[in-house]
Amino acid sequence: MRIIGTGRAHPSKIVTNAMLEQFLDTNDEWIKTRTGIAERRVISSEKLEDLATEAALKAIADAGLTPKDIDYIICSNVVSEYITPGLSCIVQGAIGARCACVDINVACSGFVYALDMADDRIKSGKAQNILVVAAEEPSRMVDWSDRSLCVLFGDGAGAVVVSHGEGMICSRLTTESKTDCLYYVRNLEPTPYITKEEYGAPMYMNGKEVFKTAVLSSSRDIKRLLDKAGLHPADIKYYVLHQANMRIIEAIANWLKLDMSYFPHNVDYCGNTSSASIPLLLDELAKGGKLQKGDKILMSAFGAGFTTGACIIEWTK
Ligand code: UT7
Are 147 and 217 contained in the same domain? Predict the structure, then answer.
């Protein structure tokens, strides 16, 4: 597969660190030093499906296609107001496409998993033009009185259209069931028969554990992919990494002995937007004229599960 169009949509509300200081025992200095985040975009009046639809339509237009040309939709999403139907079905209706749709929930690694699935489907000849949308609202999973978590996240939607071509160089997906360091449990409806204990609570994260696992797993995935592709670290134009924390990105840059010009970022003004962070950044690079035909881009993500997804693509647009 190759990427032929990109798009993105941000919520209108910008929440600065100073705004958080008004109701939390936190400060700009702590947030910037520990995470690199200065502000984040957070859903207020919008619906997540509207952001997903906007990003999708932009990606389809950028690809020079119409929604009728899309023959498969994969939507990466952790939470939205709907449990069912999936966000992909809602987006399909909103853009006026007619095709099979599927939602996946691989936490922050979802976009890379979706690209890998799209690659397989195109290789098998089952689809021609696939829309991949990653739409996330992690701001709705956290307790906004918990300073250790709510300062970290932002919402948004990024999309790409992929079609037949030679853009995917290699990919690597891993999952290791480790459910105690990052989770969000919701209460389901009661029934007359439930006898077990159940509970729902805002997101829980063991930040230090996730930080360590993220740096180690992302570095491992990057090394394996570079080796597999026979590339040196400096052969990659951009490392488009999951945007969870600037310190994680810097640790990976140090480990690769590369300067930060290889590591574009949006965590500073978007926060951690879960699986949307990579396609948001990709669209920004593409629309900002930063990508040339033939550039190699390495994407690497990690998330709850614990899951990781990484791939090297060649920019062919
Ligand atoms: O996409 C999902 C993946 N998630 C991640 O990748 C997150 C990975 N982890 C991290 O990014 C970091 O662990 C955090 C940014 C979440 C936390 O940074 P840390 O350096 O691990 O800080 P900490 O949790 O050890 O907290 C240090 C101190 C604590 O105070 P004491 O116990 O030392 O007195 C916290 O209570 O900082 C305090 N603290 C805060 N202070 C001001 C925690 N949150 C805040 C805050 N403002 N917002």
Answer: no
Does residue 245's CB lie within 6 angstroms of at least one atom of ligand 1? Answer: yes
184, 244: one domain:
yes
Domain match, 140 and 238 both: no
**Is the shortest distance between the CB of 145 and ligand 1 below 6 Å?**
no
Mean pLDDT by 10 residues, the chain (317 residues): 98 98 98 98 97 98 98 98 97 98 98 98 97 98 98 98 97 97 95 95 97 98 98 98 98 98 98 98 98 98 98 96
Query: Does the active-site annotation cover 242?
Result: yes
Sign of CA dihedral 80, 82, 85, 90: negative
Predicted structure pTM score: 0.97
Range of the domain at 31: 2-166
Residue 77 annotated to the active site:
no
| Rounded distance between C-alpha atoms, residue 229 and residue 221, angstroms | 12
